[in-house]
User: Fold this.
Amino acid sequence: MGAQTDNRAVMETILQKIREAPRIMLFRHYRPDGDCVGATKGLQEILRCTYPDKEVLLIDGERSDYLAFLGPDDAPVPDEVYADALGIVLDTGNAARISNPKYALCREIIKIDHHINVEPYGDYNWVEEERSAACEMVAAFYAMFREELKLNRRAATCLYAGMVTDSGRFRYEGVSGDTLRLAALLLDAGVDRERLYAHLYLREFETLKFQAYLYEHMGRTPHGVAHLYVGCDMQAAFGLTFEAASACVSYMDSIRGCLCWMAFIETGEADGAIRVRLRSRFLPVNRLAERYRGGGHAFASGATVYGEDEVRALLAEADEMVRMYKETHEDWM
Ligand code: AMP
Assistant:
């Protein structure tokens, strides 16, 4: 548990800050995913069980239907409530991505994150880029201070949900021995995996029809960038939420010869913004995403483009990247 030991000092500071704070407010990023929802709810539950006299709030304007089974957020509160709170922001690399802008009202901010530390916006920043999920960090926090902190089944389920979803069911690059040791700790707390997996992975009949349609319409650049375009009309035709439509990027994750794949999903916003979800094997895509108003992890990034020309330009750049990679590497499959 090397990284964990290296970061012991900042973790101890965070625990001390938590001990001293009568009120703690938790924050996450826009477009909530399993990791940011699991990490905030998991930490909230740990803190509520451990310190029943503290007020621990999670307030956010955005909710995810897919993750609704993890329970609702708290009701909005007046601005004064934020002012004397300790704010903890989870799973969010830069301040602009924090979904509840009122986080800035908190008297002190702690950042806990596993993305590249582009902006240490916290008064205290605990960032471990090699962690597979922010939920893994919360689990590591619990593990380090388990003599004081309490973990119930609900907290463990939230954290396990985030670890499973952010690691592609423990398959991606960031998964380490420590990931599995911490996941084991959560399982020991009574996670009902069968129910959890049903909540996460059962799909609607219409979704499978949509998948079939997309496979029919999937494209591929000359050197191996698979791509899908999902317009608003398609989302309406198949009765899909934006979130469900966005999940289609994973349909392209195992095509031989395609080292990079991306989904373009129309947001329906007035400015014509198109969300891009970029994924890759072997060659990093985050620098490419950064050139198109985005960023993220080496092999999983997001971006925003406007109009067909930008879609084409992004695909052309990605195609060139793959071409060069294939020319200079072997065994890329
Ligand atoms: P997504 O495909 O939207 O799930 O994004 C993949 C990863 O890239 C996520 O972990 C996000 O944190 C990150 N990401 C997505 N969009 C952006 C953005 N506009 N700026 C920085 N990072 C992003």
Summary: The mean pLDDT is 96. The longest helix spans residues 307-328. The first strand starts at residue 23 and ends at 27.
